[in-house]
Amino acid sequence: MLDNSLDFKEQMAEARRTQILMGAAQVFSEKGFHKATTKEVAKAAGVSEGTIYNYFSTKRDLLVAMVDQLGMNSLKNIFEDSPPQDPRQLLKAIIIDRMHLAAERGPMMAPLLAEIFNDVELRELLYDQVVIPASRHVEQYVRQQIDSGRFRQIDPVIVTRALMGTLVFNVGLKLSGVDDRYNDISFDSLAEQVVTLFLDGLLVDQS
Amino acid sequence: MLDNSLDFKEQMAEARRTQILMGAAQVFSEKGFHKATTKEVAKAAGVSEGTIYNYFSTKRDLLVAMVDQLGMNSLKNIFEDSPPQDPRQLLKAIIIDRMHLAAERGPMMAPLLAEIFNDVELRELLYDQVVIPASRHVEQYVRQQIDSGRFRQIDPVIVTRALMGTLVFNVGLKLSGVDDRYNDISFDSLAEQVVTLFLDGLLVDQS
Amino acid sequence: MLDNSLDFKEQMAEARRTQILMGAAQVFSEKGFHKATTKEVAKAAGVSEGTIYNYFSTKRDLLVAMVDQLGMNSLKNIFEDSPPQDPRQLLKAIIIDRMHLAAERGPMMAPLLAEIFNDVELRELLYDQVVIPASRHVEQYVRQQIDSGRFRQIDPVIVTRALMGTLVFNVGLKLSGVDDRYNDISFDSLAEQVVTLFLDGLLVDQS
Amino acid sequence: MLDNSLDFKEQMAEARRTQILMGAAQVFSEKGFHKATTKEVAKAAGVSEGTIYNYFSTKRDLLVAMVDQLGMNSLKNIFEDSPPQDPRQLLKAIIIDRMHLAAERGPMMAPLLAEIFNDVELRELLYDQVVIPASRHVEQYVRQQIDSGRFRQIDPVIVTRALMGTLVFNVGLKLSGVDDRYNDISFDSLAEQVVTLFLDGLLVDQS
DNA sequence: CATGAATGAGAATTCATTCAT
DNA sequence: CATGAATGAATTCTCATTCAT
Fold it and tell me: Fewest beta carbons less than 10 Å away: which of A27, A103, B56, B78?
């Protein structure tokens, strides 16, 4: 019973943290971190301003906490649950997964991405907690393929960052709607073309 | 004489604008747009706070004006002055050029990039003034190569954004120093590997 | 039995009040009344914040309650238990007693003293409850000595306040350590010199 | 002309500082340092809140600045302008001078005195800047009289602090009105009796 | 009665912007 | 045009107090 009540309290506290974080993510994504006020966050989260500070010691702490939330989305599932043998299928599965993630967590990530240009500590945190874990499996896979002679000798780190950049720019531009031309490109088609680009390259075999 | 004095005045005004913009760029890159104060900008530019407002109506206007400054760096030179015929050489030349640009203008661009996540208007402005012009030539080139059957049918828009993302991520990570592994990769080697990735793809020809 | 249980309850309540008051005294003396938080008081007292408000209706009430606690330290003992006949011995006994009190209760009094400069009500309370009772016996004694021709005609009120001020300043300065020169003056020597000053004055008899 | 304009600016700034300090002194003395808000200080000083921070970096800084203002009131004048030879006259002159000071600067000192119980740094500052300078001349005088055999051997430091305490308590109590009995004692009579107490002591010569 | 999470009214401080000189 | 003192709205964070459990 003591244990239960302890658990209960902890669960309540954890729920509150999440509740506040959701409100913060919403407001931050609408107005940006700096223009969002703690009052707005409180309102969006359905709590009072003071309550925010019972769970986070600083407005910036909300950003840091978001990093942790994002860190959980590695690609473990894809690689553990019988990954496709065909590189083409595997790469497409990864890209589709990242696209879904972008659509879901995009609003949460945008204000975070903005701050990493200014906040060194946050940048390192995001890199260590999110980028590294998310790219680990892909890196390993690329390295294996290189070692077995199926992939060219291109540094797996460069490859994974290239893939990330490619997706962030293309998916981000499509989602943000700044370039009309993306309206004619479906997510699936985009994924297909990125797969081709990365596996086959631009050059047509002249053999 | 009237014309002359007008010209003179205009030149002075233009010089002042640039002077202020340089100060702003410096301070913004050091502290980020929001944490930089107009007082600091004034000091860095060597003018008084009031003077800033004689040339820009708003702190945010400084950001907008920076976009124009950046818009001038298209790749026109490379494509106009006898571009290399070999795609490999051409792509590498482009990448090296962009790397130099990143090293030079990176600090000026960082705070700008940060804001496009929050500021819709700025995002569109930057896209129209900088991204579109900078990618126009590459897009055209890719399209030509596709039409002539030398490049695979991958949407030139996707390709150019992929290249941008690839460069921003890889060069940005190398410059910011968050990942030690980039210390062992020279800019030239990075460029070479990106060329290979984009032209040949990862897959080794099994023919 | 009803009486007993009531007594028991009352004793418990009284104990709690004291417990809280001790915690408050400790925290107030460390950080001052205004900078001390009720949370800190609660922690120091070993109770929850809410419990404080079951016994005191206001943070300020804690200060008021402290005044009562201090009011008990009149000089009754010295004057009731066969007071020394020699004024010199009596005065020294009083001074030594007050010095001990200062060393013990000083930390508790400091935040209280600070507030009397701002809080009129508290000032009057402290004066009525502590200063008046503590000086009553001395005042009476001085008046008797004047009436009997042994002391000069100096208003006993002035004399007692002079003695208080003299002790507060000298002992306070010695205890707080702001003036190194007090390190070379023992409490006993300080008491002796104050006795001489008050009984004989500065002037050497020129007779 | 350049010099003049510089002087002018400096004078303006100094005037503003004083203006703000006067407002602060007024509000602090009415409500106490902690309960006084910067908004109230601004209003009392006739400036905006922001202006306060153009001249003082912190609310507490206002207190520190007050210490400096008070430091100027040493007793130099009395000791330099043909001091009375008779100790009785000299001591009375000093006491009357301090009484005037208390009446004038009392409101400014009260909130300061309150804070020295909590704020170590302020305590030391006030002691070094105000107490030490104000008591220097008296200390020297007492020491001389002791050396020449006219005063008893009582540590001059103890004597001056005793005098201070005596005056602060008696004058403070008279000014604050907490004890009705001070209504029947004029400032002059109070001064006379303190002189007698300090020079002749309480004991009537039994010779 | 005990608890401590929730509250929200402030409070100190900052800073973009204005404007008199 | 240049200046920089003045402004005051806005913001983050604190903390005494309440109240449901």
Answer: A103
Q: What is the mean pLDDT of residues A20-25?
A: 95
pLDDT in tens, D125-140: 999 988 998 899 999 9
Distance of B19 CA from F1 C1′ (whole Å): 16
**B11 and B73 together in one domain:** no
**Higher-confidence position of C32 and A76:** C32
Query: CA of B51 vs C1' of F6, distance in Å?
Result: 16
Residue A77 placed within a domain: yes
Does the distance separating the beta carbons of A204 and B201 come in below 8 Å? no
Inter-axis angle of helices C132-147 and C156-176, nearest 10: 130
Nearest residue, CA→C1' of E3: C48
Q: Is the Cβ atom of D9 within 7 Å of strand F at any atom?
A: yes
* Contact at CB, B198 and A197, closer than 8 angstroms: yes
Note the pLDDT of residue B73.
66
**CATH number, domain with residue D159:** 1.10.357.10
Chain D window 48-87, residues with Cβ within 7 A of nucleic strand F: 48-51, 53-55
Give burial (CB, 10 Å; 0-12/13-18/19+) of B191: buried
**DSSP conformation letters of chain C:** -HHHHHHHHHHHHHHHHHHHHHHHHHHHHHH-TTT--HHHHHHHHTS-HHHHHHH-SSHHHHHHHHHHHHHT--SHHHHHS---SSHHHHHHHHHHHHHHHHHHHHHHHHHHHHHHTT-HHHHHHHIIIIIHHHHHHHHHHHHHHHHTTSB-S--HHHHHHHHHHHHHHHHHHHHHT--GGGGGS-HHHHHHHHHHHHHH-SBPP--
Q: Do residue C203 and residue D199 have CB atoms under 8 angstroms apart?
A: yes
Rounded CA–C1' distance between C122 and F11, in angstroms: 35
Range of the domain at A133: 69-200
Q: Which nucleotides of F are covered by protein (CB under 7 A)?
A: 1-20
**Do at least 3 CB pairs under 8 Å connect C with B?**
no
B63 part of a folded domain: no
Residue D161 included in any domain: yes
pLDDT at C5: 56
* A5 pLDDT above the threshold of 70: no
Same-domain check for residues C127 and C192: yes
Q: CA-nearest residue of chain C to D200?
A: C201
Residues D34 and D126 in one domain: no
User: Which residue positions in chain C have pLDDT lower than 50?
Assistant: 1-2
Mean pLDDT of B99-118: 86
D60-74 tens-digit pLDDT: 999 999 988 887 766
pLDDT at B104 (0 to 100) = 83
Instruction: Give me the mean pLDDT over the D9-27 stretch.
Output: 92
State pLDDT tens for residues C80-98. Answer: 777 778 899 999 999 999 9
Instruction: Check CB contact under 8 Å for D179 and C127.
Output: yes
**Nucleotide nearest residue D61, measured CA to C1':** E12
C203 beta partners: D151
Residues A48 and A106 in one domain: no
Number of domains comprising chain B: 2
Residues D131 and D41 in one domain: no
My answer on whether A53 and A77 are in the same domain is no
Cα(C166)–Cα(D174) distance, integer angstroms: 17
D–C touching, 3+ CB–CB pairs within 8 Å: yes
Is A35 among the domain residues? yes
CA B206 to C1' E14 (Å) is: 65
Determine if strand E comes within 7 Å of the CB of D77: no
A134 shares a domain with A41: no
Q: A95-141: per-residue pLDDT in tens?
A: 999 999 888 888 788 899 899 888 899 999 999 998 998 899 999 99
Reported pTM: 0.87
Closest chain B CA to residue A184: B155
